Amino acid sequence: MRDTAVFVLAASYLDKAEAEQRNNKANETVNQYTKRAIVGSMAAVSPGTDIIVQAYLGTSMVKAICEIYHVPVRDFDIDTFLKLVQTQVGKSIPVILAIAGNGLKAFPGIGTLAGGLVHATAYGLIFDTLGKTLVRTLSTRSDFQPAAAARVFQETLSENLEKGTTDLIKTVLAAKQKQKLDN
User: Looking at residue 164, what DSSP letter applies?
Assistant: First the structure.
């Protein structure tokens, strides 16, 4: 019985360490794709190209997170999830920021710069929220349930709007500075 207890305890520690390692790797992936979304939104100059770039990055992020949690992407009901999320995002600040950013880009000079920064912040906020939603959902469940994930998305969006926007703005400004240095 003592040996069994030792093996159960060891298995418990191993499971906890594995879950922590997965969460760390998944959060790093979210941060990486959020930065890519920010840079992609600033690099897109013609209307509509940012949507193509963001769609590609979003799909890649979902695949990467699914791979970390060993969940087949084909098991996702992405369409239902996106519809639920879009109803929430449509009422939220990220969409307003994206629209404002696009509007500001129409004015040459400072408007273009300010619009690009606002637009990049909006995409960063959306990517960070979607990524964290997937991580939270997959780390607590073995399957993907769109309605539950949409609730987690709303909670995460509220948290990000309160805490994370300042960090995202810093990331946007750092990316803009790096872009200037590269040119």
Answer: I
Spatial separation of the C-alpha atoms in residues 123 and 98, rounded to whole Å: 7
pTM for this entry: 0.70
Crossing angle for the helix pair 110-140 and 2-43, to the nearest 10 degrees: 160
Number of H helices, E strands in the chain: 7, 0
Q: Which domain holds residue 90?
A: 2-182
Predicted pLDDT at 31: 92
Could you give the number of structural domains in the chain? 1
Say yes or no to pLDDT of 4 above 60: yes
3-state DSSP of the chain: CHHHHHHHHHHHHHHHHHHHHHHHHHHHHHHHHHHHHHHHHHHCCCCCHHHHHHHHHHHHHHHHHHHHCCCCHHHCCHHHHHHHHHHHHCCCHHHHHHHHHHHHHCCCCHHHHHHHHHHHHHHHHHHHHHHHHHHHHHHHCCCCCHHHHHHHHHHHHHHHHHHHHHHHHHHHHHHHHHHHHHC
Q: How much is the mean pLDDT over the chain?
A: 75
pLDDT of residue 30: 93
Structure tokens at 179: 């872009």
The gap between the terminal CA atoms of the chain, to the nearest Å, is 67
Contact call for residues 54 and 41 (beta carbons, < 8 A)? yes
